[in-house]
Design a protein that fits this description.
The structure is a homohexamer. By secondary structure, chain A is an alpha/beta fold. Chain A is 27% helix and 26% strand. Chain A has a single domain, classed as P-loop containing nucleotide triphosphate hydrolases (Rossmann fold, 3-Layer(aba) Sandwich). Chains A, B, C, D, E, F: This is RecA-superfamily ATPase possibly involved in signal transduction. Chains A, B, C, D, E, F: Keywords: ATP-binding, Nucleotide-binding.
Chain lengths: 254, 254, 254, 254, 254, 254
């Protein structure tokens, strides 16, 4: 089975070289942890360094916002779009529809109007085929869960994940982590789960990454510091975070 | 993308110069933390120092009360209203309607009678256009959430936030924080979240501010002390609060 | 805006001289903390020392009981009633109606038979006008909340508070505090909240008062000891309770 | 107002001489704390030492069982029944009705067959008048709460307590305490609450009593050890239990 | 009133010689604590040493399984059955009915097919009369609670216990303890409750028994170690477990 | 009764030589603990070393995935299938059905299309008979519980376990452990429960196994370290994990 490079310096080493081809990996953490950044870096790195086109499914915010936030790291997503290395699907269930203002300078993307997950899946299949994408990034599962009735959440999330398993893409998905202790169906159904923590140590925050699970891979089991630097996320795989250093509370609280 | 000055001394430094134009920032904290003060200071400072008109949406208390509480800091909101630099929308879902007593010396404001969020949004659009406002402050989301059925909260809050994203205003909103650990939809959907904590240290309280998230900004990640002084809130950005100093309990309790 | 003296020695100093006229202040604490005593002292002190008549709304227990418990402090409420300085409204939703026994020596008071909050509000307005009351004390909001369906609590409490805001009275209300951490709608909607704690220190109890919030006032933020003495409650405003002294548990438990 | 002696050595001193006449006092604690014993001792002591007849309402277990368990302390309840100093009402909502076996040697008592609280109240009134009882002991409120629908608990308990307030009896009631932190309507509506704790200190248990509230009384506020001795409960009112001695967990757990 | 020997070495001493005749005693603890063993030992010991026949009601697992697990201690239940000293009622609500395979070597027992508790009670009465049983052991109440609708649990458990009170048998019942802090109706309605704990001390487990309540008995109140030895359970009544030795978590977790 | 070797070095010693024939053993733990590995090793070891054929029921993931993940340990499941020593039933309730893509190189297995547990049970019976299997491994109960309505979980899980008790197979089942403290019906109904913990010690993870219960067996009661090595799981039965070494939080969190 092939390996797909993470495009995050220091992360490949923790998972025996990369994600397993066609797997579904969940990236979870609190607000500001860097989940979206890790996924965009995965797509941009894949397109730029490994010639692997990718599809971005925006369920949180807007394509324009993500593109703008990516300039900070020197990533020119619009150029990659013009080179047909990245395609964007705008499937935010909370997208604005009331006032008929069309944003100027709209990023080229495909808009999925319906809230039905089957329509989004169909569009994903279309876009993946169109640019022969090998990478897929969905940001984020939490938006999807918030937009549907509580009683439907399980069924819709499992339908999404099960269908994604049959794409010829290696998928990253993000999900907001409320509490390290709660059970979420997306963590259960994913092949791999990466957690991004923000701990408090002294008066500052300390970011730490851990591989919670990665099926079929003898993955690293420690907490490693990571940083959001000028060119994106960097994991310090040779350093470890000792748990007597960190405050009991994650960035979810004190 | 432009930056909007916070008008809080010491706060701009924590978020690379100011809020991102047209973003929606949530200010959250317990009772007495200074959420309303931070928002009023944002509007008054914007009107007075940066020539940026602003709209105030009162969902908690009354316009008269807010104006009176602002005299303490030397802010003359009624004068700014007469100069068309501030407009007030009174949209408190709990406003008094029973006894037909009209308060004397009523502050000029627009009253939104209905509880329908669409009406409030429409009025916001009207007032923003009238004075060409660049700043918007909504106090507070919590009142809105308390006034509707629990099952409608998510939908109404997300409708509000999503519509605000398309205004040409940079919006601050306040929300009461019950517990640092709970998930709230307004925290999730906002671009930025600022938390105002009141910790107990020894026998006194210690106020501390932190930037929980600020999308697209390399924001400060520490706890900094702030004070409510004579001219408003001041953040001591060069000092940090160490978490071994503070009591485990936030001002929510002991 | 005028200030209304608390009539509690040591308390005025903590809130810049007194309550703000026409505000609604919530006094909260566990059983035996002294909530009712603080409110009766407010009324009796106001009538006796400041010539400010007051109305007492009894929602917990009976007028006879409150009068009898007040003798302990040397307060003669029946005399103040005869002097038209205090009026009592008996609006206990749990009042006895089954057996047709009329208590002898009944204290002169107005009985509100219905459980409808509008009737109680109407009666309050009547009594306030009759003696030109400037002070109002409602004991307690908790009885009201227990007497109605859970689903109606929010609406009824907010209706009560919102209507009281338009009276020309400064209102104190009591409420039972189960846990320092829970959110209550009356705390949220009141202008001020005073908490009466009973901590355990060593083998004895230690009473401490704190001003949780007081809108528009630069209030004290520490824990101060208070005592229930022979003439009523006394706050030791120059002393502070350090939180390493006190047991983690409030009088709610251990 | 008169005082009613508790008949528990050491307890009167903690509450200024005794219970206030006609008050309703709740005795709460975990299993084995001695709640029933404290109530029986109150009745037997009242009948034997103070010539105050009493009525016992058995809602938990059977009259036979209570009488048998009282022999241990040398209390001959059946003799007091024959002397018309004690009357028993058997109102256990869980009483056995299926198999038609009548227990031999049945203790003389009045059986309330219905589960309707009004019938029990009526019977109480009858028995109280018959022997001119001044004391009433109901064991226990918890049985009553378990026997009715959850949604009716509040209404039924408050109906019971409110009707009891109009009897010419001083009433003790027992209630099982699950957690020192939970709110119970019977604690709220009673005039006084006495808590019987069983703490763990070292490898043994340590019993401690505290007066949580006693309206109108300047009651003791410490934890005092008590014992179940040969002649009943004895409170060591001159000793105090320091809370650094005791394990954090009450007898509810570890 | 007579005393029934527990048949557990060391246990009689903790409860003044034995169980009170005709009482209902609950034995509670986590998985592997030895609840079933304590009950079987009670029956086998009663039959073998005190000539008191007993009835075993199997609601958890099968009679064959219990007999097989008892060989380990040298107890030959099938021989006691042939001697009419023990009878077995197989009333497991989860018993297998689908595939028509009849287990060979089936232990002689009476099968209660229905799930109706009245049928089980009737059968208990029949079997008790047939061998003039003085002892009854029901394993376990938890199975019964799991097999019925949540809303019926209280009513069914109380019906069971209340009917058992009128048998001429001393009954032991087992129940699974999830948490030492939760309230269970079977603990409340039983005359006695024995808790079997498994604590963690260092890297090993430590078993400890405590008598939580035993009505009418001046029972021991400490934690004592017990062991499951070759001939059954042995309680070390002269030793005590100090609670600074044991880990905070019971065998329910860490 | 016979004993079935676990095929895990070091584990037999903890349970007196092996699982009891025809028992149902639950293996529980968090993500990445090694539950599936332990079960596959059980089947492969049984087939390879003890000539005991086994049936694998895949309810989580796909047969292809499990086979691929097993290569890592040198287990050739497809060869064992061709030798009729292992059979696979693919009964994943979440299996993909939407897009009509048939995976190439499909592993020979029997697909149970329906979600009805009776169909799966029937198929298990068929496959067990076909190869005269003595071992059965179901991975995992959690998938089954997630796929059905919450209200049906108890009934379906108990139906499954109860039917399995009558097979001539010794069954291992896996289940995801959310919290060491919660009650699960599969833990309750299984004869044995093995827990795989991942603790944090310092900056690394420490895997530890414990036998929570094993009916009829005098099982080890300590925490022992285990590792996932090159040839599968190895338990270090002569070493113990002391609980002052480990962090309070299991791998469920911090």
């Amino acid at each position: 089975m092939g390996t797909v490079r993470t495009a995050i310096p220091g992360l490949d080493e923790l998972i025996e070289g990369g994600y397993i081809e066609n797997d579904i990996i969940l990236v979870t953490g609190g607000p500001g942890a860097g989940k979206t950044t890790l996924g965009i870096q995965y797509l941009v790195g894949g397109a730029t360094n490994f010639n692997e086109p990718g599809v971005l499914v925006v369920m949180d915010g807007t394509p324009e916002r993500i593109i703008r936030d990516s300039w900070r790291f020197g990533w020119d997503i619009e150029k990659l779009i013009s080179q047909k290395k990245i395609k964007i699907i705008y499937a935010n269930p909370f997208k604005y529809t009331k006032f008929t203002k069309t944003p100027e300078d709209r990023t080229p993307c495909v808009i999925v109007a319906s809230k039905n997950i089957a329509d989004t899946l169909r569009q994903i299949q279309i876009e993946v085929e169109e640019i022969q994408a090998k990478r897929l990034f969905i940001d984020s599962i939490t938006s999807l869960k918030l937009a549907v009735d509580r009683t439907d959440v399980r069924q819709i999330v499992s339908e999404l994940i099960k269908n994604l398993e049959y794409l010829d893409c290696t998928t990253l998905m993000t999900s907001e982590m409320h509490s390290a202790q709660s059970f979420s169906i997306e963590e259960y159904l994913s092949s791999g789960v990466i957690r991004l923590h923000i701990f408090r140590a002294g008066g500052c925050r300390l970011r730490a990454i851990e591989i919670l699970k990665m099926r079929g891979v003898k993955h690293d089991e420690s907490l490693h510091p990571y940083e959001i630097q000028e060119r994106g996320i960097v994991v310090h795989s040779t350093e470890t975070v000792m748990n007597d250093k960190i405050s009991l509370f994650d960035n979810m609280g004190w």
